[in-house]
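Quick check before the chapter quiz. The format below is the same one you will see on the exam, so make sure you can read both the input and the output lines.
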Amino acid sequence: MQGKLLTEHLSQSELALNKRIPTLGLLSSIFGNENVIIWLKIQFGSVNDYAEQGIGMNDSQLSELSTLVLAEYYYLNAAEICLFIARLKLGKYGQFYGAIGGMKISSALLDYIHERKTDIERAEREQERINREIETDERIKNGITFAQYIELKKQAENGDKNAMEQLKIKH
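Here is the expected output.
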């Protein structure tokens, strides 16, 4: 799944804002903490295998890291965890020197969270800009000038039923 996410070129905000992808918290409430921790251990364990450092995290360390990540980052969804792991393996958060440890992964996850927040804010600003453009286009398409309004109002006051109807629609 990690490779698939990268080939789709989805942004962090696209993944984070996708309500169809379950969060760690939701998965935990449905399947229980233990099952989510097992899944997280598999994800973090794959870093051990990938890095070929010789000394990786042991089962106890993987369990503790997974438990802490579930407690602290329950709002991340499953795809975001996979994207983080893929980016970690690609060296986006620095190289591993010596043993891979929970602190190195936790530190990299903090960087990921910062990038995520920045990307979500960017996506929200872009959506606001698009909404303003749509609203402006609608006003231009459906609006009338003040001079046109005054003329329409005069026509309505003189009994023009069409003008009266248009004024009802415009308000």
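If your answer matched, good. The chain has two domains: 2-139, 141-170.
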